[in-house]
Amino acid sequence: MEGDPLATPGTSNGAGSRPAGQPPAYESVVMADAVSSSSLAAGRDSNYRKSSEFEITVTDPVKQGERVAAYVTYKVRSKTSMSQYKQGSSEVIRRFRDFAWLYDKLHERYKGIIIPPLPEKNAVQKYQMSTEFIEQRRRGLQIFVNRVAAHPKLKYSNELQLFLEATEDVWMMEVARMNQESGGAKKTINNTMQFFKDLGHSATNLMAGKSDDEEEDPDYLKVREYLVHLESHLIEAHRQSARLIRKQGELGIAVGEFGQAAEKLGKFEEGSLQDAFVHLGNHAGDLSTVSRDSANSLSYQFEAPLKEFTRMMKSVRAVMADRTNALSFLQQAKADLDAKRVKMNKLKSTPGIKEEKVVEAERERDQADLRLQNARAAYETIVERMNEELARFQKERAVEMSQVLRDFALAQAQLASETARSWSSLVTELQPAAPA
Amino acid sequence: GYMQYKVVTKSTLSSYQNPEPVVLRRFREFVALDQLLKAKFRGYFIPPRPEKNAVEGQRMKDSFIEERRAALEKYLSRLVSHPEIGPSEEMRLFLETDADLATNIHWLMVQPPQQSFLEGAARLPKQLFGKEGVPQPTEVMQPAKKSADIMRMMREGMQGFKNELYTLVDMPDDEKELRCQTKLMEMMWDQLSDSSRVAERLVKKFERMGAVYGDLGLSFIKLSKYEEIEGSERARFTDTVSCARALSGDTKQCGIALVRLARLARKVTNKMAQDLGELHDYMYFMPSVHRALTSREQAMLTLQTLQSQKVAKEKAVKEMETSDKPLAGERAKIRRLEMFKAEIAGLENSAMAAKAEYEKIKAVNFQEMERFRAQKAADFTEMLRSLACVQAAYAERSAEVWVSVARELGATEQQVGETRGGMPNRSIRCETGMMGR
């Protein structure tokens, strides 16, 4: 790959280039090594935000097809040092639904892991396919795939490898095959649920039948509640951040318009006062431009990350739902086993019962027992993974939030500084115009 | 019911009987004052009086009353600061007379001669037959109002149209000068309206931005509080206690900075509205300027009308004197000639009075234009200076606040330096007195 694509992500599109002196963009921090001097980052052994084994970029969006059937393809370039990969570097073409496939597959296979979120699926905006929307999506996709590649478990997944390496035909074949398999797996789960229902286990029966060690950890339940409320706070913070950017932009426009009107008014004055009005017009024009640029970069540096936090919470909710499902599955399996055991014992103690009926009942009990063990294993895997994941999630969120806030403060400081410079030079220019 | 306003004056003028008169005035008395001044101070730029039209339901509301009170106070202050109007007898009577002006003899005596519509209409037939006579000198000093001397109006209307045709070619230089000034003032009036509207929008947008700062700040503070209480509790489950504390701390820093700046933005908004209000005031002053300048044009019109009437009559006399008429009408002819000559003499007097009035208004126009220009230059200079100072100070303070937050959140000195773009830590020399913590 030419150059170091990670130092300036997206420059091949002409986007993402920033004026000298701007604090580093959030996403470049996500991609690059941790530069923050935050005490949390210090002394960390593993860097979750950049994988030491991968370098991945998502670039060159190209519109394909017509109108309703239109879509965008992206070039996904990757370099890796992972031994399991056939090639050290690859370049493939993928579209949004391919990324979505990767997300779905990872979610299916890695229960309990918080899968990094995808950018919006928004149908209306997609139909319009504005340049801005495509650029936002491109950035989101790049962050997504890099987060996957940096995750301690997901980085080893076959799905990721297939996504990064497979050529068109191989990709389509494997995708079709995996879909069939998991389609089958989905069917099995549905069948089993139906099976339990058919056996006439009502919800209350199952609840009544469950034993103590099949209950949810009360501490976990409190954490779950915390996370649900946290999401609403994060959504509010994002909403306000979007409003801020909008209002700052509108103010910039109003300043520019005022400058123009004032300059026209100044034509009816003379001498230094007229000059002063001209200066006002000039400075107002500059400020208008500065405001607009600031609003643009803020939307990537500040609003987009806050939006991503809210999307991350959706992934968290998905994992929590998985845990709940796994638990209820486990509870149902336990209740079912108990029922089968009771039935078997009853048959055994019935005088004059046919041998084959008892054998049948024993077999059913064995099957139920196996199901229970699988269910328990699945549930416990999720629990174990979730503990690690929640810890990772909190730590990562803390560092990233600090970074986002720090960059926001720096951007605001810069804007304020330039604004101050502009107005104070107008003050200086006005001094000779002041009456004696 | 109606409101009465207490007018308290302090005067050092010797013409005042009482150095600190206190009187009660109704709004309609202010209206009467305005009408009086407009009639007696033709050519002067008279400060505009507060609006009359009040929605019925609003008139007794406290906020409306206070608004009107402040407007009336401002109105009187501007009147007394005018070099001619301030020390006038009319002002003294308004400020000192401890009675209702409508029935006060002294007040009624300073009123200008008025002609009612009925009187004007009654004169019409006589004028048509040429028997009525000529406008008297005192009458010509007043512009032809809609309710009086309709004939005069018609005549003067024609004259004005003639002026337009020959544009400014035949006018003396100083008249030309003032007509150009009038045109300029009209154009400036347009630009003032535009600027005033745009300025109002600017203030509104600034206010909204300040409000959003507050909203975002609050949402950050709420988030941080939640992390602090709930997050720390739950953190024990995942063993991330230190994370939760740092998270809530950083978010709180940002939130507090935003709320602080929102408060400051509110103050700045008020000052901005005050400063840019100057544009609004000047916009509302323009009708007075326009009225003063056009009153001179009316005076000129009156003068020209009288002069052309006189010329027409003189021409008629000449024709009568040189024509051959039968002996039978000789006595009637002589009588007619005598009458015409008397009318010509009357017109001569009126024209002289009209000329004097015109010249007076012209001189006043020049004087007022000069004073207006100087005042405007001073006011606009101060407006720009104050606006720039306040904006600069606010931006400097914002930068300070954000830099300190960035430092708290771990920004390097290099990063901080980059935001300043190499500008030294210079504070703005401004007398604003509002940028304190």
UniProtKB/TrEMBL annotation, chain A:
PANTHER family (UniProt xref): FI18122P1, SORTING NEXIN
Domain named PX: residues: 52-171
Xref: Pfam families: PX, Vps5
Tell whether Coiled coil is among the UniProt keywords.
yes
Q: Which UniProt keywords apply?
A: Coiled coil
Q: Which residues form a coiled coil?
A: 330-403
Record region (Disordered): 1-27
Q: What protein name applies here?
A: PX domain-containing protein
TrEMBL record, chain B:
Q: Which SUPFAM superfamilies match?
A: PX domain (SSF64268)
Q: Which UniProt keywords apply?
A: Coiled coil
One GO location term (cellular component)? endosome
Which SMART domains does the entry link to? PX
Example GO molecular function term?
phosphatidylinositol binding
Where is the PX domain positioned along the sequence? Answer: 1-102
Q: Which InterPro entries match?
A: AH/BAR_dom_sf (IPR027267), PX_dom (IPR001683), PX_dom_sf (IPR036871), SNX2A/B (IPR044279)
Region listing for Disordered, in residue ranges: 417-437
Q: Which residues form a coiled coil?
A: 303-364
Q: What is this protein called?
A: PX domain-containing protein
Ranked from the top, the taxonomy reads:
Eukaryota, Viridiplantae, Chlorophyta, core chlorophytes, Ulvophyceae
